[in-house]
Design goal:
The chain is α/β, with parallel strands linked by helices. It is about 40% helix and about 15% strand.
Length: about 425
């Protein structure tokens, strides 16, 4: 009886710890730990939260390390693999459009110095594109021990920028790159954005946008009081900026946000409407939380990257020089807010080198942008000499410029090109959504 009891005990213990094929292979990867996720998306065999040990400095491993978070969706070892190059933190995952198109495995990769992918101390000198793309390269090389089919990288917004830079530094890691709504800024103050804002939409719409800004600033004291009460109710604190600075920044930000996030011209209050209605619209579109301590801290690493390597934008303030009291009116205030107000120097050598590289070598790229998105002002321009595709989706903004919002004909062109590049038979996964 004791022998039978021991046999069944061992049998169930073995079953409990039995590994699937993918788990056996994950266990064999160097410096990788993983845990199964509670739910797995339809069409996938398994989902895992993965952490990979990364050098803080890929050029000198003695400088220490950190663990970088990845979400793995496993479909099949023989399937293509999609790398999502996030630009920020990542909490949880979902199946990307690209993974749906290629029916692929998916590695959703949190960016270094964001979320859980943090070193013991924020040594910003190691937050560079050289180091961040080296993280991606190492992940790619490690996971190619499992996935040997085609590889595609993709990212959205700052993640799309990362996709471009990753391909620049490691052109042979992936077969295709698909950046969405990705700027490739060449300066700390990108004047192409001023040109975009001066010409997007109709003259009447641009005038209504400016009227909102004037209405708030011309009614400064009343606007200040109402917005301060709003901030108190929203539990927003301001110590990196004064509240008055934050309010002026928010007013200058309004046109950028309006076009970036799909503002509707017909919904803009006229200058004759009550101030409360104008302020409510302003809060819905731009708001002031972006300039609060909470958001400053959340985007600290983003600002560091923008201010040192990736470039950014400033606010054209000449029309409001007599109404700005907290911000300088003789220069365009920068939208970079460096952590702890540390000194920084922007180096334009890398973005210019990457721009030259995509111009001369950027094949097997698909760029997806929104015609109404402010960030399309600094997108990689169309170049007919390259074996690449550009989609500038009419009427779409930063959040709408997606494959699912393309026309059937646009997706057909894209899928045909992917088939030729990847040597795969693909279908349009969004046909049902069109019906």
């Amino acid at each position: 009886m004791k022998n039978y009891t021991l046999f069944f005990s061992l049998f169930f213990s073995i079953q409990l710890f039995a590994q699937t094929e993918i788990e056996t292979k994950l266990f064999e990867l160097p410096d990788v730990i993983f845990t199964p996720m509670k739910s797995t998306p339809e069409g996938y065999e398994a989902a895992y939260k993965v952490k990979i040990k990364q050098p803080l400095d890929h050029n000198d491993i003695s400088k220490g390390h950190f663990y970088q978070k990845i979400y793995l969706l496993h479909k099949d070892i023989s399937a293509p693999t999609v790398m999502i190059t996030q630009g920020y933190n990542r909490n949880g995952t979902r199946v990307s459009e690209v993974a749906k198109v290629v029916k692929g495995n998916q590695l959703d990769i949190e960016h270094r110095f964001y979320g859980e992918s943090l070193p013991d101390s924020m040594m910003y000198e190691y937050l560079t594109l050289e180091q961040a793309t080296s993280d991606l390269h190492r992940i790619n090389q490690v996971f190619k021990n499992i996935y040997e089919n085609k590889w595609i990288s993709t990212g959205i917004s700052k993640g799309g920028q990362t996709t471009i830079y990753y391909r620049y530094f490691f052109p042979d890691d992936v077969d295709v790159s698909i950046p969405y709504v990705a700027p490739l800024n060449l300066a700390l103050e990108e004047t192409r954005i001023y040109d975009f804002l001066d010409n997007i939409g109709t003259k009447e719409c641009r005038k209504k946008i400016e009227d909102v800004q004037f209405k708030i600033l011309e009614n400064r004291e009343e606007s200040f009081t109402k917005l301060k009460w709003y901030s108190k109710g929203a539990k927003l604190d301001y110590s990196y900026l004064t509240f008055e600075e934050a309010m002026e920044y928010a007013v200058l930000e309004y046109p950028f946000s309006f076009w970036q996030w799909g503002g509707v011209c017909d919904e803009i209050p006229t200058k004759d409407q009550p101030l409360d209605e104008v302020l409510q619209h302003f809060l819905d579109v731009s708001g002031i939380s972006f300039f609060s301590d909470k958001d400053m801290e959340a985007y600290a690493s983003h600002y560091y990257q923008a201010g040192t390597q990736m470039g950014y934008y400033s606010y054209e303030s000449k029309n409001f020089k007599d109404l700005l009291k907290a911000l300088p009116s003789d220069s365009n205030p920068s939208a970079v807010f460096m952590p702890n107000k540390m000194d920084y120097t922007f180096d334009d050598s890398l973005p210019k080198a990457a721009y030259e590289w995509v111009t001369n070598n950027g094949d097997e790229f698909i760029y997806i942008n929104g015609a109404n998105d402010t960030w399309s002002a600094t997108a990689v321009p169309v170049n007919k000499k390259r074996d690449a595709l550009w989609f500038n989706l009419e009427g779409k903004d930063h959040g709408q410029a997606r494959m699912k919002n393309m026309t059937k004909d646009e997706r057909k062109i894209m899928i045909n090109k992917l088939e030729s590049w990847l040597g795969l038979d693909l279908e349009d996964p969004f046909m049902e959504e069109d019906k």
